[in-house]
Amino acid sequence: MPRFPAADMHGIHAILYALFDEHERLDRAAMRRQVEICLDVGVHGMAALGLATEASKLSEAERRTVMEWIAEDTGGRVPLALTIFGSSVAEQVAQVRHAESVGADWLILQPPMVGQFVAVEYIRFFGRVADATDLPVAIQNAPAFMGRGLSSQEIADLVRQHPNIQLVKGEGPVTDIAGLVEATGGKLPIFNGRGGLELIDNLRIGCRGLILAPDCIDHAVAVYEAFAADDEEAAMAHYRTMLPAVVSTMQGIEHLMCYGKRLFALRAGLTVHDRAPALRPNATGLAMIGCFAAELGPLQRWRR
């Protein structure tokens, strides 16, 4: 039996930022502190190597290192998802093997970030990688951010063809996610992202939860737990608190890497160093992030 069956996955899962030192190397201490903070605020799962972790800027060896670090620091306390990044089936399967070896509970497959192909080519690609593992697998479907994606019906067909594709990581408006819920008969655990935009509406339509970068993760956990307890007033209060910062940082992936990461760092007491090439902050952006950090306060566990 798996430690965390896919059918039971739920809640707010943190997707880690890649934190670098002044020499643009991965910062071991900062990455460990990020995991500790996420666990302390009550996340229901951990994840790494997605868009927020800037996987495209990491070497294959660095991606393996991140897998090892997050597995060690999470210590099996919550489900661990690792995103698989690679331009070929062979490269992705090699990453799958390392994820298995460190104890990942489930995998999130990204489409290869080379070329532009018809949907059937991506379906075959995902299927070959999924067939190489016994772990539960999710498809990351983020066409707005990645320029590649599948329709709700295509995802439903893929799930029927490959039984261990048991989850979906979406990145889209709630209206699109509702179509995916309908196409899969509400039987597939679906997680959205987008920083927490439309968080409560995603839960209302049947999303199991969201996978979010950690800048506002404490309030997102509080929203989820209040909603699960049928306390929509408390859920809305936390959502309103986090929403201005979410809207500001979710102007695009590079914007999130620049300003979302700095918001997290201010709330966590850490320092941000970028790995080039990167969007560099300006005075206006830093002032806005400073105001959001002051309003939100330090990251903390909100008790009901």
Overview of this structure, please?
- The protein has 304 residues and is an alpha/beta fold.
- The chain has helices spanning 28-40, 60-74, 89-102, 119-130, 143-146, 152-161, 174-183, 199-204, 217-228, 232-249, 253-268, 283-296; strands at residues 11-15, 45-48, 80-84, 106-109, 137-141, 165-170, 190-192, 209-212.
- The protein has an eight-stranded parallel beta barrel with strand order 1-2-3-4-5-6-7-8, surrounded by seven helices.
- α3 (89-102) runs parallel beside α4, α4 (119-130) runs parallel beside α6 (152-161) and α10 (232-249) crosses α11 (253-268).
- The protein is globular and about 50 Å long.
Please outline what is shown here.
47% of the residues lie in helices and 12% in strands. The chain has helices at residues 28-40, 60-74, 89-102, 119-130, 143-146, 152-161, 174-183, 199-204, 217-228, 232-249, 253-268, 283-296, and strands at 11-15, 45-48, 80-84, 106-109, 137-141, 165-170, 190-192, 209-212. The two termini are 33 Å apart.
List keywords for this structure.
TIM Barrel; 12 helices; alpha/beta; 304 residues; eight-stranded parallel barrel
Outline the biggest β-sheet.
Answer: 8 strands, parallel, barrel
Radius of gyration, whole Å:
18 Å
Q: Any idea how many domains? A: 1
> How do the helices and strands follow one another from N- to C-terminus?
EHEHEHEHEHHEHEHEHHHH
Number of strands: 8
Level of helix content? 40-55%
Molecular shape: globular
Mean pLDDT equals 93
Distance between the termini: 33 Å
At the fourth level of CATH, the homologous superfamily is Aldolase class I
CATH architecture classification: Alpha-Beta Barrel
CATH C-level name: Alpha Beta
Strand numbers in spatial order across the main sheet: 1-2-3-4-5-6-7-8
- CATH overall fold name: TIM Barrel
